[in-house]
Specification:
single chain, 267 residues, alpha+beta, five-stranded mixed beta barrel, 36% strand
């Protein structure tokens, strides 16, 4: 059996050529769709964090500065700290320092603050959206002693994230795709957080401090957004924990870094 003779300028394609071309295009189309479906199904899903954008809420509690800026509240007899961040990519330091100076506030003063809230896994944060005008009222009671307990020493693997994006403002806010944003946020005063993942899910969080609970944001920037291993003392206060570390002990977990999937999308 001989193949049909194909004439390029002919109006009609021979049946044998048309059948082969149709098969080829159908095969390519099915292959592309299959690859796309497999690729999408293997992407890591979004976490169920929430950013209550555009909704200003008020919370009352004791203003605390160390080891992190926060609002210490009593929620049904359980003491919790709502960490505070500034507007945009700014940390809370400049806004709260001006607020304390202008209104003669001290650490431990009872205040009511207004701002936008974001949260994940029961961890609530507040953005001081209106900057110094975020203060609604102040005065009255002052806080009793706040205890920070050192509870041992741990070796942990995780990823350093900027908490504002991670806990609600961006999703996802991890790995290489978010690294440059996280570095800018932490450089501007967001407290660095070590997020611990087990079996594909985030399960625990530690603020990172130096051995004397000092700020180490500038020295940990090269490790932001990478899988790292670090050891340190664990400090507990209210519903949060810190890991006090020597930054020279930070190590990148190379095998996990090489397998990091850089593809993700932000809200």
């Amino acid at each position: 059996m001989k193949d049909d003779f194909y004439i390029g300028w002919s109006d009609e394609t021979p049946k044998s050529y048309a059948a082969k071309a149709t098969f080829f295009f159908v095969f390519v189309l099915i292959s592309m769709i299959s690859i796309a479906v497999i690729y999408v199904k293997n992407q890591r899903g979004y976490i169920d964090s929430t950013y209550e954008y555009g909704v200003l809420q008020e919370f009352s509690g004791f203003l605390v500065k160390d080891p992190i800026w926060g609002l210490r509240i009593d929620e049904g007899g359980e003491i919790k700290t709502i960490p505070l961040v500034g507007f945009g990519k700014m940390g809370p330091e400049s806004t709260l320092s001006k607020m304390m100076e202008t209104h003669e506030l001290k650490e431990g003063t009872m205040v009511t603050l207004r701002g936008m809230v974001f949260h994940y896994q029961g961890k609530y944060w507040m953005e001081l959206t209106e900057k110094e005008n975020s203060l609604v009222s102040a005065g009255g009671r002052t806080m009793l002693t706040r205890e920070i307990k050192m509870v041992g020493y741990r070796k942990l693997e995780g990823e350093i994230v900027d908490p504002k994006c991670f806990f609600g403002v961006m999703n996802p806010a991890v790995k290489a795709v978010h690294r440059s944003c996280a570095i800018r946020c932490i450089s501007a005063g967001m407290p660095p957080v070590l997020a611990i993942r087990e079996n594909g899910y985030f399960v625990d969080y530690y603020f990172l401090h130096g051995k004397d609970m000092e700020d180490i944001s500038s020295t940990i920037l090269p490790y932001v957004g990478l899988p790292i291993e670090v050891s340190g003392g664990v400090a507990m206060y209210d519903d949060w924990k810190s890991l006090t570390i020597d930054t020279s002990d930070l190590k990148v977990v190379l095998n996990k870094a090489l397998n990091t999937n850089p593809v993700a999308f932000c809200n």
